[in-house]
Amino acid sequence: MPYIDTHCHFSDGAFNSDRNEIIEAALSAGLEFFFEILCSPEDWQKDPLFSDYGKNFYFAYGIHPEYASKYKSEDLEKLKEKLKGERTLFIGETGLDYYWVNDNKQRQKELLLAQLSLSESLSLPCVFHCRNGKDADDNAYGDLLDLIEKNWNFNSTGKKRGILHSFSGSDIDAQRALELGLYLGINGTFTYPKNSQLREIVKKAGPENIVFETDCPYLPPQNFRGKRNDSSKIPQIAAEISAFCGFSFSAAENAVYNNSRSFIK
Ligand SMILES: [Zn+2]
Questions:
Q1: Distance from CA of residue 131 to its chain's centroid?
Q2: CA atoms within 13 A on the CB side of 211
Q3: Phi and psi at residue 166, to the nearest 5°
Q4: How far is the CA of 43 from the centre of ligand 1 (A)?
Q5: CA of 215 to the centre of ligand 1 (A)
Q6: Which residues does 190 contact at the CB level (< 8 Å), separation at least 6?
Q7: Disulfide: which of 8, 184, 196, 242 matches 247 by Cβ 3.0-4.6 Å?
């Protein structure tokens, strides 16, 4: 079964010297499709970087919460045009991040709501980013899931409505995300020793509720910590998930592939 990396940032400068070689290596490692996430006005212009791999790349365009204090209202107009592209699959990543900056929660929520409304008007699923703050009060997952529940009326006709990428929430957050029609995006953080809660959540969710991702160049699996990540690590992440959770390897790979593939029209 081929693999899909549902969350990569190959436009990142970390790949400037060898982008095509790394993509070729990932294709040889069994990757079939890459969902490239372009999540700032500056990033949106970078899709031509992938023109040699037209069949393999699909795109998400959005404004990441870290731009909540910087973006301008005309950026949302530009985003709307960008989202009309033929190879667009998602709006994103959009969401809430209280880890580094937590004094602009209202701005972050407004930016998220604007993108939820684009999702409805353009009938596009979302890729969500979420990170809690260092204080227990800074519950970004609670806020994100509340906002989605109350304000997001995108109907994907029987399919899931998006991906909660790089899941790092609690067991309850995971249950709520699944009830709200999202897949949990699972990456190299599954292999980090401290993440036993995440491993239990994935085991309980089962292959029908997850998708694989790398978030490269960030978050390499444990044996590559400190190094640049890329999509060729997906088979290793997949194998570690099946081994730990006791999933039948081929059945799990099939299910996860079909989950990711369901977003391609
Ligand atoms: Zn990302």
A1: 13
A2: 31
A3: 45, 55
A4: 12
A5: 5
A6: 198, 199, 202, 237, 240, 241, 244
A7: 242
* Structural domain boundaries, residue 80: 3-261
Distance 23 CA to ligand 1 centre (A): 17
Does position 1 have pLDDT exceeding 90, yes or no? no
Token look-up 């992440």 returns: 237
At 230-243, the pLDDT tens digits run 999 999 999 999 99
Has this prediction a pTM greater than 0.85?
yes
- If one counts the domains in the chain, the total is 1
Write down the pLDDT at residue 251.
Answer: 96
Is a pLDDT exceeding 90 seen at residue 95? Answer: yes
| Residue pointed to by tokens 């940032």 | 9
Q: How far is the CA of 65 from the centre of ligand 1 (A)?
A: 11
Torsion 258-198-201-60 (CA) sign? negative
**How many angstroms does the Cα of residue 104 sit away from the middle of ligand 1?**
20
Average pLDDT over residues 150-163: 95
pLDDT level of residue 265 (50, 70, 90 thresholds): confident
Residue 40 CA, ligand 1 centroid: distance in Å: 11
